[in-house]
Every structure is written in C-alpha cells, then in structure tokens.
Amino acid sequence: MRGCARREHVSTPPNAEASPDHRMRQLPIDPAPRRYPDGVTLMRRSSSGRSSAPDRLTAADVEAWLLGEATRISDLIDLFEAFVWRMVVAGLPLDRASLHAGTLHPQLYGFAWNWNIADGLCDEIKVAESVLSTPSYRRSPLAVVLETGAVVDLHMDDAAAGERFSLTEDLKAIGITHYLAFPLGGAGYHNLATVATRQQGGFTQGQRAAIERLLRLLALHVERHTAVRIANNVVETYLGRLAGERVLAGSIKRGAGSRVEAVVWVSDLRGFTDLSDRLKPSDMLALLNAYFEALAGAVIAHDGEVLKFIGDGLLAIFPLYRSYQEGSASSAAVAAAIAAEIAVASINRTPPVELADVEGWRPLRSGIALHVGDVFFGNIGAPERLDFTVIGGAVNAASRVEGMSKQLGHSILLTGEVARKLDRKVKSLGSHALRGVSEPIEIFTLDEAPAMVSA
Question: Is 211 helix (H, G, I), strand (E, B) or coil?
C-alpha cells in the first residue's frame, strides 16, 4: 500500500478527547487493497493523509478555504481529501467520509471518493450502471438519497436501521455510532456525501450543523468538477481521445490543426447497401453497433484513435509519435486489424442477443486498409458547425486501397510503408493503379491473415 505503514494499536478511554493523529493510531488498518464489489473499479489512491491540512483550523477557516484556495485545486480527489482532513483538524469527529458524483457517460453511472481515518487513505472509484440493479445498492442509503433527495440519518443503536439498510451491521462492527448521507443539490448530476463517526452518542447538533454548512459549499466545487468531467466524457466519446484533448485545449477555430504522421485505418462493412435494404432499421442499427464495437474496440485496445464513423465505414489513425506495446504504429495497427477480424468472426459464430432472432445478416464481412502518410488533423466545415478530422493524400490512398479488398480477396490490406515496419510475414498482391493516386501502389496482405468470410 503506497504511503501507508501499519500503525501500532493504542487504546484510549472511551470519553477521552482524541487528536486526529491519535485516532488514526488507535483504529485498525483497512485491508490493502480495499475491497470493492463487482461493477466498482478502483482508479486511484491518494495517501497524502494528515499532511493535506494545516495543524490548526476552525470551521470558519475551512469555510474560508472553500471560498478561496480550494477553487484552485483542479483534481477532485485532492480537493476532497484536503476538505475532509480540514474538517477533522477543525474538531469535527469524522471517521469515514465519502463523496459521490454522477456523470454523463455511456457505461458509467458516476464516480466516488472514499476516505477513512483508520488508514488515512482516499480512493477514487468508478461505478458502472450495472451496480444500480444490485441488492446491496437497492438496500443502501445511497439509493434513498439519490432517488428521493432525502437526508439519511442512521444511529447504530436504532434497531429499525438494521432492517432497512444492509450496511448497518458492517458499520456497527467497526464501531461507527452515527452515519449521515446528504444530497449535494442543484445540478441534477446525482451528487451526495456521507459522513460517519465513532464518537459516543454520534454527532452533536452543533457538529451536524457545521458539517451541513461546509458540505453546501463543497457542493459548488463538486458541480464545477462534475461539469468539467462530463464535458471531457462527452467530447472524448464523440470525438475520440486525441481530438477531444485538442478541442478542450482550445483548438476550435476553423482551419486550426496540425500535421500528423500516422498509420491511417480505413474500413467498411461488405454488403452494407444490401443489408440496409433487407433489414429493419432497428435490426440494422443493432448490427452496426455490434460490428463497430468489434472494430472500434480493437482500435482503441491497441492505442489507436477512432476519428469517425461514416455509414458503415470507420476512419482511425495510429500516430507514429506515440509509443505502442507492439513496438510501432504499424505493428499496433496490424494487431488491431487482426483482433477486429477475430471479433467479427466471433459475432458470426455467436451473435449478440440483439441479433439472435434476426435473419439474413450472416456472415459479416469487413475490409480494412492500412497506409502510412502525413495527414492534416484539425477543424474543417462551416463556421457554425465544425468537424475535427483528418484529411490528406494518405487518407485518400487508404480509402482506395480498402476498396480493393473484395477484388483481391483479402480482408486486411497493407501498403509497402506499413508492411516494411512489421516483424511478421507478408505477401505482395502486386502494384495497382488507384483512382486519385498519382503512382501505382504495391499492396500487401498478411501471410496468415484471417479469412475475409468468417462464418
């Protein structure tokens, strides 16, 4: 466990005043790593601990910090950790705390930050949508707060609390006497915070009032951070990581962009027009989603950038300046192409549920072309409606090569610049004159490429 050493257990009288440092020593250390259920993934762990806050503070000092210095903290894990430790130093008897923030993402419900004085650590986790249907979530205070907006106030000596919420016995087992969960209102992003104490009798009315006041100020920061995170998620989901980073960095003017040397990937789905004529729109949409999940998933898994879906076509790049596990952009692109073909073959063998009862779409066939060259990566379009994409001769050449896959009978085609960078066997399919390309291009395929028809 980074930054966390096991501390000696020191007992203290039940009613003794305990400093934050003393309370850390007297409590058992959480297991490392902390355990999280299915659908919850640990992303980061901070161990700044007690150093996150000054030695002396009042609640008014924490309030002033939230209105000033805290606005300059760009990372929510750092902000929350510093906030919780400041509350502890200010005399609020927190032993556990968590912050939960919803997001707009196709697969995630939100993020959370879990802090515990027992080990001084703060975890950042991401929560999948699937968690919302689990019994543990349905019987948790979080569900009540998120779905009703009500405050949950649990005293562990209340027998009814144990019947209502599944976590009550776990909290009692580690000595928690009082647990509070508050909605952090306003923006509709499903934000909330929880606090818990081992203090005998629980939080006093004054302590609770101070906590609520500070959480109302924290909520403003959470909404700001959540909005930024959602913007990042939306931009990355629709534009891709590389384009998204550039747009968020301010590259939003028409013509703004830069030259990038890259392996260009162009692919399409064979027989798309015929399939579109024969299948219902809903079935065609399900088919395209399964197909693009196979191809785009392979590109992303091998560190490529998916730039655009055009009907049944996919445009992606593997920039040469980037480091790849396979050793080069060409090797990464070829590995992605092979993985994509394997994934398409898997769809043909074992269709997803959405396609199980759809007739007449198998087998899916794909054509993938890989070519190296300079492309312009930037904004094109009308002043009111821009698109961030790549253009250039390399894109045109890759598109023309891809159009040869049916004629040549191979699903993965490479140009010479890609083929020469590989440490695997390739075979030449001859030089071909391509429309719009000034000189004939020699086209290669993999010596042991997957068959184009994968039934």
Answer: helix
**Strand order across the 192-197 sheet:** 40-46, 121-128, 108-116, 96-102, 192-197, 178-183, 152-155
The answer, yes or no, to whether the previous bond of 33 is cis (omega within 30 of 0) is yes
CA 295 to chain centre: 19
DSSP conformational letter for 355: G
Beta carbons within 8 Å of 322's beta carbon, 6+ residues apart: 303, 329
Contact 95, 85 (CB under 8 A): no
The DSSP annotation for 108-133 comes to EEEEEEEEETTTTEEEEEEEEGGGGG
User: Which architecture, in CATH terms, is 253-446?
Assistant: 2-Layer Sandwich (3.30)
Amino acid identity of 246? R
Q: Is the pLDDT of residue 68 over 50?
A: yes
CATH architecture of the domain with residue range 20-237: 2-Layer Sandwich (3.30)
pLDDT digits (tens, 9 = 90+) for 171-194: 998 999 999 999 987 544 478 999
Query: What are the extents of the domains in the chain?
Result: 20-237, 253-446
At 385 the pLDDT is 66
Q: Give me the phi and psi of 287, to 5 degrees please.
A: -65, -45
Residues shown for the chain? 455
Q: How far apart are CA 366 and CA 451, in angstroms?
A: 10
Pairing mode, strands 366-382 and 412-415: parallel
User: Which positions ≥6 away from 414 have C-beta within 8 Å?
Assistant: 334, 369, 370, 371, 422, 426, 443, 444, 445, 446
Question: Model's pTM, two decimal places?
Answer: 0.55
131: pLDDT confidence band, cut at 50, 70 and 90?
Answer: confident
What amino acid occupies position 328? Answer: S
